[in-house]
Structure formats: C-alpha cells, structure tokens
Design brief:
heterodimer; A: 141 residues; five-stranded parallel β-sheet; globular; B: alpha+beta; 4 helices; 7 strands
Chain lengths: 141, 140
Amino acid sequence: MSRRILYVNTGSCNGCDIELLVAFTKLIEEGRELEVTHEVKSDSYDVLIVTGPVTAQHTCRLIRELFKFRKVYIKNLVLVGVCACDGGIWYDSYATMGGFENFVRYLRDVYGVELVYDRVYYVSGCPPRPDEIFNVLYSLL
Amino acid sequence: MQSVAFTLRGVPEVDESKCILCLACRDSCPVDAITVEHVNGKARLMINYARCIRCLVCAERCPVGAIKVTQRHTVVADSKSELTYSIEKKLTTCEKCGTTTGSVDYVNYVMEKLRELQVEFKLVRQCGKCRVRSIHEVFL
C-alpha cells in the first residue's frame, strides 16, 4: 500500500529540498511505496512535509491548495529545517510568516479555519541531515 | 579519513561552569535564538534550537570559551519545549541599592581581569547608577 505524502516548498532556499530528495531515495531503497505530490489531490494525507518559512507570496497559494476540498486531514506534520520550525533567519521579516505554526495561527485568527493534524515533528537544522529526516519519515511511514 | 559529516557544524552547547553570563552570545546571535529570563533570583540562558542556524557566531564571540560546538547537527523533537536548551546561573545584587547587576561569575571574572592589570577598582560590586554616584561623591 502506497503512502500519500504531500510535500510543499513554501519559499525555502532548496537546501532542505535537496536533503529531502536523499531521504526519499533512501526510503524507496528500503522498499517503501511513496506517492509524493505537490498538489492536493485527495482530502487526507499521511504526511505533510513543509520546508521554508511560508513567504507572503506562498500564503495565498497554500490556502488555495490546502482547502481545495473544503477540508484536508493530515496525520503527521513534519516541519523540515529551521525556517519551517520557527522562521530561521526570516523570523521577523515582513515578507514571511516566520514558520508554519504562525501560518496555522493566521488561518485560525483571520480565516477561522483549522488545519487538522494529529502530531507534529520538528526536524531542526540548516539544512537537516538526510539521515535524521529519513529516521523520522521511516518511523512514520 | 574523517567523514564529511564531522566537518559540519553542530548545535552549540554551553558549559555551565565556564559561562559568566556576559550576554555576548545573546547580543551577537543574528536570529535571536539565545534569550535570557530571570526566574527566582536566577538567570536562565536559553538556546532555541528550532531557530538556531548553526552559524556559531556565539562560540566565536564567547570570551571564556564556554560555548562548545557539538557534532549534533540535526535535532528532532515532537514538541518545541524539547528543542530548547537551557542553563541556570546565580545572580548577584548591588551592595548599595540591592538591584540585580549580573551573575556572580561575571563579577569574579572582572575582578580577576583587574587584578591582572594591577588596577584597584572597588566599585565592581555596585550597579551602574550607584557606581556613578559613588565616583561623584569622591570628586564633588
């Protein structure tokens, strides 16, 4: 059975994305069937992987994408890199949300919608090593 | 041959016995990952690993070499409180007015430096305001 992964790059520098590619390759080597998408195609996902500090440009796109089917249910949220965890070097920038959690808070306060997820994992590092991303994803999938 | 991973920089950790709480690390941190708060007469120095970008400017700036570089490159947790590293330091008060001036070790460090320079300065244990007042009392 293939696992559904939704993977969004919310304005990251591609450092985390390169390391994620290595982690994905390792997972496939381990025999896991993955279904990685960048677009929302169904209403439930096993893992939502987020990289980047959620820039102002990406905010509209993310809202449009995540609430395409009225509600998206996410089992595990994996925040990869310090940008997604707490903003990183963009923590007080006018052009970013400063982390994915601030985006979730913004959704709740401004739009009144809740992004539902069971657990959240922080993989901090700039960028994190592929082994650690692999360990997290391996335990989840 | 040493692995490439060991040449990468890991997260900083603070040696509690060496640290003098001069706050050079907090002031030099480009992402404000290092914060200090006062709890029950003690100062708590906290490093937020969720924001730390491993630039290690703090380790470079530290005058006593208390911040050491570990090989832990990635920190994984499922709550943000686990990503916070903290140490506690004892605080000292001004001998004249009783306000908090800094850590005990910091005053000792300054005293030691002055002894090395062979300078006698008796107002180290006072706060900034009291020190100015004391100097003025001598001259005026």
